[in-house]
Amino acid sequence: FDDVLLQPAYSEVLPGDVDTRTRLTRELTLRIPIVSAAMDTVTEADTAIAMARAGGLGFIHKNLSVEDQAREVQRVKKAQTGMVVDPLTVRPEQSLGEAVALMEAHRISGLPVVGPSGAPVGILTHRDIRFEEALDRPVESLMTTKLVTVPEGVAPERCKALLHDHRIEKLLVVDGAGLLKGLITIRDIRQAEAHPSAATDPQGRLLVGAAVGVNGHERIEALVAAGVDVVVIDTAHGHSKGVIEAVRLAKHTWPDLQVAAGNVATADAVRALAEAGADCVKVGIGPGSICTTRVVAGVGVPQISAVMACAEAAADYDLPIIADGGIKFSGDVVKAIAAGAQVAMVGSMLAGTSEAPGDVVLYQGRSYKAYRGMGSLGAMRRGSSDRYFQEGQRKLVPEGIEG
């Protein structure tokens, strides 16, 4: 991006009038054209939450076990919810100890209590059990039975009024038959007001993505169950048989799931992935500051040229593209969009933030965090070797650095 500048021209548009909304995939819209990279020193739940609240999206890296990656996705989906759909519940005869264990395991402060029919009969919160020592007692002995319920589709202002009038923190959402359908909390209402530009799904939950490999069918299954909005089949060479077949299989198995794929650098690669069913294509081979693919493998295309060629091909399929790599300054995002990308993926710009994974290192009076490419030796040993088609190899050839 350093080799290119945009020539200014006459304009009647003020900065405050600019609409930064964009498409990430065929079906997903973001408020800002920025997503965080699926790197183990950049994006886990904390980064993804911050990105979504700002209007973007974070891709959870895959150097985690299937269970841990799905858990990170769940953390993002539960960080902000317009309404908790199908909330965790307990039965009146269950012990307080079971209820407490459930609250602690899922980091929640209350549980609806439902009867055999599925209708709510009470609610148990932390306040009810704050000083209780006999945790073998049944839930019904301490639950609140005077319930305030609302129908599905209730307006947020009405919820706020009820929460205030009754001095409570949770509203139970019921259907026409009186069965429990959801839970609305004062925390969720406050979060929505505090982050009006957040990128959310139809249920008001934050958007989140996750990376998988070409053999990630089992991983995708767990991520879908956790509520992921988009998965990216993430490799160093997306124009390959394995990636194309993985995209085709994912779309066949989960037709409603948004599937991105990459990385590529040519128009032919975009066409191949689009025809396989990809909802978005990630462009960039070797432009990242910590990527050495171009030096080690002698492969790549200058990023501006790659984005322009890929964007032209993607337009024939109404397919959004992500410019991945080489973003060092805010102006680079502008250049990527001008070249035809809908979204820019950033890594190094976020690696030193408090939300990024990893410990803070103090060196000569300054604070640092580790940052490494997913092709670095450390990252490949941790689990990203399949991204560079070196899975199972005894001797790895790094295509990235650590710092």
Helix/sheet category = alpha/beta
How far is the N terminus from the C terminus? 22 Å
Question: Major sheet: order of its strands?
Answer: 3-4-11-12-13-14-15-16
Separate helix tally: 13
Question: In brief, what are we looking at here?
Answer:
With 403 residues, the protein is an alpha/beta fold. It has helices at residues 45-54, 66-79, 96-106, 156-166, 186-194, 217-226, 241-253, 267-276, 293-296, 303-315, 330-338, 348-351, 377-384; strands at residues 22-23, 29-30, 34-36, 57-60, 84-85, 110-114, 120-125, 149-151, 170-174, 180-185, 209-212, 230-234, 258-264, 280-283, 321-324, 343-346, 361-363, 366-368. Helix 1 runs parallel beside helix 2 (66-79), helix 2 (66-79) runs parallel beside helix 6 (217-226) and helix 8 packs across helix 10 (303-315).
What's the layout of helices and strands?
Layout: E1 22-23, E2 29-30, E3 34-36, H1 45-54, E4 57-60, H2 66-79, E5 84-85, H3 96-106, E6 110-114, E7 120-125, E8 149-151, H4 156-166, E9 170-174, E10 180-185, H5 186-194, E11 209-212, H6 217-226, E12 230-234, H7 241-253, E13 258-264, H8 267-276, E14 280-283, H9 293-296, H10 303-315, E15 321-324, H11 330-338, E16 343-346, H12 348-351, E17 361-363, E18 366-368, H13 377-384
